[in-house]
Amino acid sequence: AGSKLREVFDKINNLLSGKPVQTEGQTVSVTQHPQGLEFVCYKLAEKFVKHGEGEVSFHHDSAFPIAVVLSGIWELHPRVGDIFLAHLHKKCPYSVPFYPARKEGTSVEEYQRMLGYEVHDSKVEEQDHFLKRMSGMIRLYAAIIQLRWPYGNKQGAHPHGLSYGWRWLAQMLNLEPLADVTAMLLLDFLEVCGNALMKQYGIQFWKTMFFIQKSYIPRIEAVTSSGQMGCLSRLKNFVQKCLQAEEIPLPKGILTPSFWRT
């Protein structure tokens, strides 16, 4: 509910503002320790990324309530946003976007970690699980760049707005595609903020969609084996439908004005 989200936001904002906050039966304040504020910013940013790779990867709609709170906190406390991006880029290099190259002397295990895989006791996580986590983080990022906290002071610009999404898309399309990963990330990104990008960039956006269909999807196909076609087929269908309808659908789970009255 909207009222619940406001409670969460106020509590986080109060904590970061140095006010005493009640939690688990005790009162805490960042002023209790010289590094209190820095520690809370770090842990909070880390927690938001974990929501992306956990909550959002299983429940796509949850990207929006989480993102709108983070967007508002980022506006008032830029340090949290900076640390959030650092955590996000480390956990999901594709959010830069960047495909790390393996350098000489880097072990396979270390390289897997650089690519975003979780490695425990020399065992690398399964591809499906890895893709799900990356998908959740990209969806959260795509939600953040288009949302503003509705009760903020709308004077300034969004601290990390749609122009960053436009840049992400352009840079992504300049990279050589990777099997599995590229098709999934593009689809996630376009499903979540394609509508917002369309409204903001108009004809330029449609040129990009046309480029994806005519030039970029064939390049993804070239590196994709027959067993990895699922995501690529979904991306193809999505782009084709949007170009035919000349419309990008609103993402599922977007927060409507009526949500804030709940």
UniProtKB/TrEMBL annotation:
Keyword Zinc: no
GO molecular function: inositol hexakisphosphate binding; phospholipid binding; translation initiation factor binding
InterPro entries the UniProt entry points to: GLE1 (IPR012476), GLE1-like_sf (IPR038506)
A GO biological process held by the record: protein transport
Gene3D superfamilies attached to this UniProt entry: GLE1-like
Compartments (UniProt record): Cytoplasm; Nucleus, Nuclear pore complex
UniProt keyword annotation of Transmembrane present: no
Family listed: Belongs to the GLE1 family.
Protein name per the record: mRNA export factor GLE1
